[in-house]
Every structure is written in structure tokens, then in C-alpha cells.
Amino acid sequence: MNIRNLISYLLLILFLGVIQVLFLKNLALFGIAFVFIYLLGILILPVSVKTVPLLLIAFALGFFLDVFYETIGMHTAAATFLAFTRSIWLRAISPTGGYVDTEEPSLNEMGLVWFLSYSFPLVFAYSMVFFVADQWGTSGFLGVLNKSFFSSIFTCLLAILVQLLFFKRRRGIR
Amino acid sequence: MLRILQFLYRIRAFILFVFLEVLAIWMIVSNNSPQGAAFFNSSSVLIGSVLKKQADVIQFFSLAEANEALTSENAEILQQLRLLQIKPDSISIKLDSALAATYQFKGGRVIGNSLRFSQNYLTLNKGSKHGIKPGMGIFNPEGVVGRVKSVSENYSVAFSLLNTGLLVSSKIKSSDVFGSVQWDGKSASEARLLFVPRHVKAVEGDTVVTSGFNAVFPEGILIGVISKISPDEKNPNYLSLTVKLSTDFSKVNYVYLVENTLFTELDSLHRQSEISNEY
């Protein structure tokens, strides 16, 4: 990854974070389906990014969100968890022959089915951690499951939409 | 020794992960403890100003509605003022300090709000510069909104009533039976009235107002109406009352803040006599 790529990824992450804070903060379909579109920024970082920098990026991003959401620590914990499980999950579902070094796990590169099976469990894990932290000791586990499930569906749908609409197919450099 | 170091180096990602998670959990816990000082929250200048810009744009669309509400409230207050004005008389009585104003009111605007989590907070555009202090009560013409948690120079962060950590001392208006209103984290339009004994005859539709016992809110500010009554399953001595909140939290935008000027005196008296005022 060269420096130009790095900057464009950072810009993308920042942009998604700002969109999340300004427009999607109070959005919840039927009161249960939240959307965490900023996770797309962590999800589509290239496969070659090592776990340690990934954890740090996710931590910083989660903290940035937390400050605006007034939920100090919750997004941070969940995003860090997502970053850690991402590398494990990537290894578990690697296609035969492994990843090409510069490949990014995005919709355009890998196809719809693969992207869904990649992103849905990760976003679900994220939502679980987030809502467990949010509702700790206040309500039942069923509510947490309910919210996590629908939030991850909503987030994945929006992530796919964003990639279809705004990402160029097969670009060399973003 | 080298082996150990090599092993530690190999699992460095995991160690970092555990470290960061513990840090995050520590942040959650320290931010939620009542006395925990929160440095990073939306009362900081940078974040407050971003939230304020956002609120400026969004609230522009509800200006007409807000204006109308303020006008009708003004009219009501004028009416009450007319009733209070006493005609000049030949005798004048000097009022003593017992009748001095115990509550002071200030106005503010909500620039950040959430209602979908179980710990919801509000951000207000007034801070210590404008005389806002932690612990002040917040309400609007519809009813109780919350309580100030922490302040910075220009902004302040408050517990919303939709925060499972906030208890508001309240009473049923018709029978004067007191209890505490607490949100259960479910619907944004309903809360629970706790600690009402079983023998109390409560009726659906009874009004619930603040009791004035914990000296945060003056007595008689509307909270909501009782919408459901059932015996408490966990504790058979109490009733389980559901209160339909009168405040529409999705549309809170102009609010009043109230401060009890005698709060410190009351609080030190409570401390001196070693009782904790839980209501």
C-alpha cells in the first residue's frame, strides 16, 4: 500500500465517520434497526493490513464516534472487537489460493455472496458487543439479539448500496 | 527467556486487543459512575460547536412550531402574572428570607439528543458561563426532560429522562402518594413509577408530577399519566405502574433549567444527619 492509497483510505474512513455522526446518529428503523455505516471503512481495508494497525485504527474510529454519540467506550469496545475478529474471519473464509496481496475485501472485488458472508457475521458481532454494553443489566438478552440482528441486516444492506453507487469498479487507486 | 519473548511477540496482536478492550471497558465504567469525571464528551468546545451547527440546520425546520408553543406559553404566564399583581395598599409588609425565591429558572436549547439507547444524554447550548451547574433540573412546557450531568464553559451534558440511571422523585397528583419515576429502557414514550405501595388506589389516567422532595425540581411539574397498573411480580409489596410520558423526546428543543438556590444547604443538612436522600 503506497502513501496515496493510505491517504485515500483515511479520507474514506473520515468521510464515513462524519456521515454517521451528522446524518445517521438518530436513525433507527422501527426503533430497533440502527445503522453503523462507518464500519464499512474498517471492513474494506486491504487484506494485507496487519492486525496491530487495524486494531489501532478501529480503536481511534470507535472513540471518535463515541465522543459524538455520548456513549464513551461502547463503540470503541465494539469496533476493536470487530477489528480483531476481522483478521480471524478473513483467514477462515479465504478463497482457494488465498488472497492476492493488494486485494481489498469489497463488493466489487469479491462478489455479492462472498461480501455478505464476510460482512454480516462481523457486523453482527459488532452489534452484539455494542448492545450488550449499552443494555448491560437493564433488559433481557432477547432485546439485544433482536436489535443486533436487524441492525446488522440494515447496515449490510446500506454498505452494499454505498459500494454499488459510489465505488468505481476495478479502480487502480481510489 | 528468548522463547518467551518470541512467544509474546507472536501474540502481540492479541495482547494489544485485550489491552484496548480493557481500556474501552474502563472508559464505559468510569463514564457511567455518578461521580466519574468525563473529559471526553460533547460538552467540549469542538464537538459542541459541530453539534450546534447540526442542530441549527435541523431546528430551522421546526421554528414555526417552536414559536407557536412559546407564544401560547407566554400568554399563559401573562395571565398568571395578572392574577398575582396586588393592588397597591397603604400597608406594606417586609418579606423575610423564607419567602425568597427558592428556584431560579434559565432557558436553553437542546443541540444534541438521543433516544434509542438505554443511556440517553442531551447536550445543551449553555454552560458554566451562563450559570449552569451540574444537578440542575431540565423541563419544557410539556413536562420533565432530564437533569444536568456535567458542564463546560459553553455547553453542558445532561441525563435525559430516558436514561436508566436517572430517578426522578414524583407523586401521583390526586392522592399525593410519592414514588420514583425511572425509565426501563424500552419505549421512548413510557417510563415506570416505582415504590408505590400495593394498598394505594391508583387509577389509569391519574397524573404523575414531580414531588419536590429531592430539591431538583419544584413541586408539580408534569411527568405523565398512568397508563397501566399491575401488581409487581418481583416485589409483591409494590405496584408496577407504567407512566405515559407527556414530553415528546423526539421533539425536545427549547428547555428551561431550574436551580434550587437552597440545594447546598439542604444537602449539607442531609449529610450532617447522615441520611441519603434517595428520592
TrEMBL record, chain A:
<feature type="transmembrane region" description="Helical">
    <location>
        <begin position="148"/>
        <end position="167"/>
    </location>
</feature>
<keyword id="KW-1133">Transmembrane helix</keyword>
<feature type="transmembrane region" description="Helical">
    <location>
        <begin position="55"/>
        <end position="84"/>
    </location>
</feature>
<feature type="transmembrane region" description="Helical">
    <location>
        <begin position="112"/>
        <end position="133"/>
    </location>
</feature>
<feature type="transmembrane region" description="Helical">
    <location>
        <begin position="6"/>
        <end position="24"/>
    </location>
</feature>
<keyword id="KW-0472">Membrane</keyword>
<keyword id="KW-0812">Transmembrane</keyword>
<feature type="transmembrane region" description="Helical">
    <location>
        <begin position="29"/>
        <end position="49"/>
    </location>
</feature>
<protein>
    <recommendedName>
        <fullName>Rod shape-determining protein MreD</fullName>
    </recommendedName>
</protein>
UniProtKB/TrEMBL annotation, chain B:
<dbReference type="InterPro" id="IPR042177">
    <property type="entry name" value="Cell/Rod_1"/>
</dbReference>
<dbReference type="Pfam" id="PF04085">
    <property type="entry name" value="MreC"/>
</dbReference>
<dbReference type="GO" id="GO:0008360">
    <property type="term" value="P:regulation of cell shape"/>
</dbReference>
<dbReference type="InterPro" id="IPR055342">
    <property type="entry name" value="MreC_beta-barrel_core"/>
</dbReference>
<keyword id="KW-0812">Transmembrane</keyword>
<comment type="similarity">
    <text>Belongs to the MreC family.</text>
</comment>
<keyword id="KW-1133">Transmembrane helix</keyword>
<dbReference type="InterPro" id="IPR007221">
    <property type="entry name" value="MreC"/>
</dbReference>
<keyword id="KW-0472">Membrane</keyword>
<keyword id="KW-0133">Cell shape</keyword>
<feature type="transmembrane region" description="Helical">
    <location>
        <begin position="7"/>
        <end position="29"/>
    </location>
</feature>
<protein>
    <recommendedName>
        <fullName>Cell shape-determining protein MreC</fullName>
    </recommendedName>
</protein>
<feature type="domain" description="Rod shape-determining protein MreC beta-barrel core">
    <location>
        <begin position="110"/>
        <end position="259"/>
    </location>
</feature>
<dbReference type="InterPro" id="IPR042175">
    <property type="entry name" value="Cell/Rod_MreC_2"/>
</dbReference>
<dbReference type="GO" id="GO:0005886">
    <property type="term" value="C:plasma membrane"/>
</dbReference>
